[in-house]
Amino acid sequence: MTTPMTGLLSAVPVRADTGERRRARIALVLLVLLVLLCLMGGGSVEGPRQTPAALTSAVLDGTRHGGDYYQAAADALRSYGAGSPSGWAVPLPAAILVRVHLPTWAATGLLWALAGVVFAAWHARLLLAGTGRWVRVAAAALPAVALAPSLLPSAADVPEVWAGLLAAWMLVLPQDTRQLEATALGLAASVLSVAALPVLLAAAGVALAGGRRREAAWWTGALLLAALVFGLHLAAIARVSPGTSPLPDFDPVAGLAPLALAVREATVLMLLPQPVVAPMVGAALWAWAMSGDAWRPMVPAALAALAAASVLTTLPVGSVAALPLLSGLVLLPHSLARTTRAAGARSRRITIKRVVR
Q1: Total domains, the chain
Q2: Would the pLDDT of 4 be above 50?
């Protein structure tokens, strides 16, 4: 008898019979497919998918020199000429305005403190994945790989870094006992960056699909409030730059390479070549899908939403997805071992004979 598997293929495997062996083999095919998808639709992060970062820098510089925030945004949009991005590329003002009014040492100190809290929370949670040496090492190394770039002084200028830390903190909290804190963190992340909106949307969808009405109401309320803030933001951009599109910059690709590229650029994995990082991202997605129920389905649902956003649009989701995604590698060895064991198990046929006396 093998260990029960929870998650996307929740029937794999309780007992190594024919049906469970077939499901385990489907799971292994899914692993190969995810790895291939992370290698497809590639190219470079240069060009349109770099526009939000360049625009954020321009708006920050304009606001820092005493200009009005939305006027600085309009000036930055005009600098792109005919290739001007949509209003979705303009960062929400909260993080920029706070950063402008804080000295560099204060902003960096706050970011380091937040990164330390998030690291401690994820490290403690990942230690629950097992007791082996791999788990102890990975529980410290993987969050460090994801969070190390946030310790750079320039990271305090990027709203997505702040939003990513808050979203990661939200996802690691047990929503059944810390619902208020989790909702507040998710709302704060979405107010800082639109890149965190998919996480909030996924949380509301998971609660609604699970029939947890009270939790769904919390998430829906936070999502509506974040949508209202973002709607007012787009309206303000339309006033100062009437030609700006209110729709996101759609740039659909046939593959998950944009997600792998975004995660690579947001973490220490930027030191590795993309063909090495892409299989790691695909394997981490698979590990979360196979172990979703054990960790609540919130994380895999959030990663799915972020992956869809990265594939369809130019939203900079790398900093938001990096920590929860890479943490899935902790779950990979056990999930892969038990799935492989079930896929290769021999079927057993039990014959029952009735003896009539």
Answers
A1: 1
A2: no
